[in-house]
């Protein structure tokens, strides 16, 4: 069966800019995401650039990664930056108690992370230690990295071989303080956020973008407490104490104790997962509504700095390493999220998928033994969506045979977002229906299409995924765009993600 849906887009009514930072990545010291996956060390026989796996870096560059969040996550709140600067062989070792109780060599420290960002042409997003650190420790990290003049910390940086300060805008004031970051109450953390923000200073012409640690999914009271703290008089001043407020929301098909397998799932699981993924829109919008009450001028940005699917770990792997496969189901979840980000770009300014390599909804799966670097279906969704980075968002009005049901849920089966830049319109479309095709007619108003092309990510089985043996089983292919001279149309296979690009005349 083929459904028919119309997507009406006023191409001459551009909305907010879709910040490229909505396509951000996250690389935590967790499992083999950083050590082994990205970092092989400078003595490695593996092809590397300054210790980073060359093939992984090259693959990630295909995504136009705008920023990388580091070193955690929960790890950030037990990380002490002074252990990760200076000569590598002299750095103390520690135990990563949060993730697998394994040894942490501190070989990837501040300078190495910033080198990775350079290699990726990405901005660093450093998450500071509020949970087990101190205001002084974080203040000194900012000083070490961003002060141009003389100071004990700036001199220490010079002693470590770096004369010029780094430009680092994005600073997280701790992570999940309501959980692994200290089990704090919202008001207690709000006070800390103001205190830490105060001592993370702008040195010289450096201007930090301080991001207070935000709510878990639907904890709107947390957002309220933080907004009340930063805008006690009901409005945010010119230069608020923190410039961003974060939010974490993961997609699961069931409860935390029974998340299910990444690759073995039923059609009912599929429906439940996509319905769950779609919920991110109302969650984001409800946090935005709270922020709007305190900050109607939208000076504070919302930052969804952890999102993605979370399944049971792959059988036989360390449960503390969060290593999971990624299928077409993950690809569709990613597409739904990116569409929501593009549609809420007025307030949502940054988002970071968890995580870049080998952890949770990864872009790349790296086999440490064979060295194989595999692009996941989610990787391809990010690559296809790249066209929206820094473009002007366009509203997409969907109408027609939209509602589908299964697994006890009823949802619109098409997800969409669009943007325009340089005389072109890009439309992302995902067919969330696991069994039915959808023909989408693109009714572009206010501009005449000159040429059109599309690509689609689809596969025969919902659980199809890429492996070292079949690295390209799931990859984008050309999709026919019909209707030259009239309304354009594409037919989306079941469970697929597409991007259509239209040049206007
Ligand atoms: O991304 C994995 C973990 O999930 C992060 O460390 C933590 O912030 C979240 O709970």
Keywords:
2 domains; 505 residues; TIM Barrel; 9 helices; alpha/beta; globular; Immunoglobulin-like; 6-stranded antiparallel sheet
Structure description:
This protein has an eight-stranded parallel beta barrel, surrounded by five helices. A six-stranded antiparallel β-sheet has the order 16-20-21-26-23-24, covered by helices on one side. Strands 17-1-22-25 form a four-stranded mixed β-sheet, with no helix packed on it. The protein is built from nine helices and 26 strands. The chain folds into two domains: 2-10 and 394-504, Sandwich (Immunoglobulin-like), CATH 2.60.40.1180; 20-389, Glycosidases (TIM Barrel, Alpha-Beta Barrel). A hairpin with a 2-residue loop joins strand 20 (414-421) and strand 21. With 505 residues, it is of the alpha/beta class.
Question: What order do the helices and strands come in, and which of them pair?
Answer:
Layout: E1 2-10, E2 24-26, E3 48-49, E4 52-53, H1 54-61, E5 67-70, E6 94-96, E7 102-104, H2 110-120, E8 123-127, H3 135-146, H4 152-159, E9 170-173, H5 186-199, E10 209-216, H6 220-230, E11 244-251, H7 267-294, E12 301-309, H8 328-343, E13 348-354, E14 364-366, E15 373-375, H9 377-385, E16 392-394, E17 396-400, E18 403-406, E19 409-412, E20 414-421, E21 424-431, E22 437-445, E23 449-457, E24 476-479, E25 488-492, E26 496-504
Parallel strand pairs: 1-22, 2-5, 2-13, 5-8, 8-9, 9-10, 10-11, 11-12, 12-13
Antiparallel strand pairs: 1-17, 3-4, 6-7, 14-15, 16-20, 18-19, 20-21, 21-26, 22-25, 23-24, 23-26
Helix pairs in contact: 3-4, 5-6, 6-7, 7-8, 8-9
The chain binds alpha-L-arabinofuranose (AHR).
Alpha-L-arabinofuranose binds at residues 28, 72-74, 175-176, 306, 354-355, 360.
